[in-house]
Amino acid sequence: MLITINIPPITYFLGISALMFLVGFIGVTLRKNTIVIFMSIELMFNAANLVFVTFASYYNQVNGQLFVLFVMAVAAADAAVGLALVVSIYRSRKSIDIDHVSEMKG
Amino acid sequence: MSLTEVYNINPYFTLVPLVIIFPFLGIVISLVFGKMMKQMVVGSIASIASGLAFVVTLFLLSAELGYGQPVNVKVIDWITVGAFSASWSFRVDTLSIVMMLVVSGVGTLIHVYAIGYMYNDVRFNEDPGRYRRFFVYFNLFILAMMLLVSADNYLLLFVGWEGVGLCSYLLIGFWFEKGPDGIYNAWAGKKAFIVNRIGDFGILIALFLIFGAFGTFQFDTIFSNAPQISQGMALAITMFLLLGVTGKSAQLPLYVWLPDAMAGPTPVSALIHAATMVTAGVYLVVRSSALYAVSPIASGFVAWIGALSAIFAATIAIGQFDIKRVLAYSTISQIGYMIAAAGIGAASAAIFHLIAHAFFKALLFLAAGSVIQAVERGEEKAGHGGEELDPQDMRNMGGLWNRIPLTFWVYLIGALALSGIAPLAGFFSKDEIITNAYTTNPGIFALLVAGEFLTAFYAFRQIFMVFFGKSRTKAAENVSESKPVMTIPLIVLAFCAFVGGAINFPTVGSLTSWLEKTVSHILEAPFNGFSTGLALGLAVLGVIVAWAVYGRRSLGAPDTPDPISRTLGPVFVGMNRKWWVDEFYDLIIVRPYNFMAQLFFGEWIDREVIDGAANNIGGTTRFFSGLMSKLESGYFRTYAMAMLLGGVIILVYFVFR
User: Fold this and answer.
1) How many CB atoms lie within 10 A of CB B215?
2) What is the band of A27 on the pLDDT scale with cuts at 50, 70, 90?
């Protein structure tokens, strides 16, 4: 038998996504710890993923879901490279405070 | 005509751009590779560049001998504005070939001489690194002079004119930090440039008038239309051209830069201030003879200025003690002869004397350089006996004839040629000028003939003071001969001075008919026994009087007064002080000018406005860059925030468009 589910209007999903993006951005801007900054960047990636999936389901297309797979792969690579950099910086400075990496000042 | 067209007439004509390109290559090679090459190589490359230009000119000569008509070879369009167009074209005709031969031929010999001379000179002045620069400037001069004489239009001629003026400034001030007071050489260069500039002002006005009257700068068009312009316009053009000529060729009233120009090294004096640059004015007058033929008043002015310069400078030459100054005033005097000849219409006599003068004056200057370096060597050998010895002062010489015999003999040949003693070149060329003057204008004839006597007198005064008698200083006793790289050009030039008379000797050479293909109405007076005999007689008399005063008894220590100063008294003082012309100019022109400049422009505008503009532009840039650099805080977060802000702005723009 068919079950009818009431899907919320699309704007709710987009709103959640925007909120996630905003929180992610605030994390990038306001946190000192480099690893937390990377987590926030991941959060922003996921917000974008949510938007893709929302529209894919709304218009019954598979393109959006396909692109999400790409984004996840890129995010993983991005995190790998970034964490390698963090390890390298820690080795030379013994600190992962992002404000200590400011030699390009001026 | 374009290059392909002249190729069909005679392939050699297409070589003509090479007379400029070879010296240019010489400059580029010396500039780029000069530091890594040995000094002799730098000098050789410069000499080869000049020599190749001479070879090219020989090819052009053979081509022109066959063809006989003037050829304009256009290389490239230069300026095209509305109805006016000027192009970079070469003119190959009999007059320009003669000039090119003189410039490149004598120029190459002087280049070779300078290889040796400058080698000694940069060591004497303790700066061997400056050798390369000398030859760069020297080649630049050959380039500019060739451009001047091969130009097809007045505008291009003026480019060459300015170019030789620049090279003259650069080379006079070659040892810019040396010289009396540490600044004399630079000051002499500046003086030459500024006085030249006054002449250039005249040429510029003349160029504007030419354009106004003819609408073009091309020689062919101008000279064929010359008879049709008004008398007033022709007078104005020719008089302003004359102003330029007096500046470049050192005639009255703008000759004052040439004696001070002797501050430059001797090869510079030989090349620029004797053989070539100063003859550019003569070339200009002869080239513009069609214009001067239209205006007899201006021609008369030219002739009188030449004759007056000839005699005025000869009187000053008698009173000078510096070996190069005598030759400098002699140059002014001899160019006066040429200008006078050009003024009375005897163009071939003027050019003939130009050629002969290039030979013997270059010879005299180069030999004087040899003497000077010999005295410098002598001073080093004798040990520095205390006070500074001026190697150029003739009172420090004497008795050199058997110590540096080669230099002596070539110097003697040069002096004989200068005095116009037969059968050397100077006799024939001067005789032609004087004969032409005899049939035209008795006043000018009298001045020129009197100049003969004075010329012979100062030339042999120099010979007796420098080479005969007892040596007046220890340095003079210890002189030694120069190296072959210096003496061989001397010998070649001496040979040319000896046989150069054949160029226009009635049966042997025919310069007149050669030039007549280019210059119309050349005055050619027949042989006149009276004028020739008078000139020759006065010249010989001058030699005898010089011997009687300077040669009979040995002159004493350097500080004894000149033998003739007792006879002439205040006249000699006037001759020695150049008749106070420099002081006169300083009083009535230089000081009021400096005063006015200081009054209006010197202090305030120079310091506040000009310097202020330059400094404040820099200051403003620095201020803004300081502001900008605050954006680069180095903090990651700031950058991220900036990125977001930028993104938001763009999105907002697109949403609300």
Assistant:
1) 13
2) very high
By C-alpha distance, which of B336, B269, B351 is closest to B97? B351
State how far the alpha carbon of B636 is from the alpha carbons of A100, A102, B511, B633, in Å: 10, 8, 86, 8
- Whole-angstrom CA distances from B182 to B173, B177, B186 are 11, 5, 9
Q: Which residues of chain B have pLDDT under 50?
A: none
Q: Is pLDDT above 70 for A23?
A: yes
For the record, the structure tokens of B240 come out as: 């302003």
CA separation, residue B335 to residues A85, B219, B272, B360, B530 (Å): 83, 24, 13, 13, 24
- State yes or no: cis peptide before B423, omega within 30 of 0: yes
Q: Are B107 and B238 in contact (CB under 8 A)?
A: no
Here the ipTM equals: 0.85
**Tokens (6 digits) for B401:** 């004839």
* Residues of chain A with C-beta less than 8 angstroms from the C-beta of B637: 28-30, 98-99
B192: Cβ contacts below 8 Å, ≥ 6 apart: B165, B168, B169, B172, B257, B258, B260, B261
Q: Which of A99, A103, A106 sits opposite B629 (nearest CB)?
A: A106
pTM: 0.81
- For residue range A32-61, list pLDDT tens digits in order: 999 999 999 999 999 999 999 999 999 999
Distance CA B611, CA B602 (A): 12
Residue B631 C-alpha, separation from nearest chain A C-alpha, in angstroms: 8
Q: What confidence score (pLDDT) does residue B647 get?
A: 93
- Asked if omega into B253 is within 30° of 0 (cis), the reply is yes
A101 in reach of chain B (CB within 8 A): yes
Q: What is the pLDDT of residue A5?
A: 80
Q: Do B633 and A28 touch (CB under 8 A)?
A: no
Which residue of A28, A99, A106 is in closest CB contact with B632?
A106
* Predicted local distance difference test score (pLDDT) of residue B386: 53
Name the one residue in this structure whose structure tokens are 């009188």. B304
- CA angle, corner B147, sides to B143 and B148, nearest 5? 120
Our CA-based measurement puts residue B50 at a distance from the nearest CA of chain A, in whole angstroms, of 56
Q: Where are the beta strands (DSSP E) in B240-337?
A: none
Residue B474's pLDDT is 77
Angle, vertex CA B355, rays to CA B350 and CA B359, nearest 5: 140
> Within an 8 Å CB–CB cutoff, is residue A30 touching chain B?
yes
- Listed residue (B398, B364, B363) closest to B378, CA to CA: B398
Domains and CATH numbers, chain A: 10-94 (1.10.287.3510)
Tell me how crowded residue B183 is: count the other CB atoms within 10 A of its CB.
14
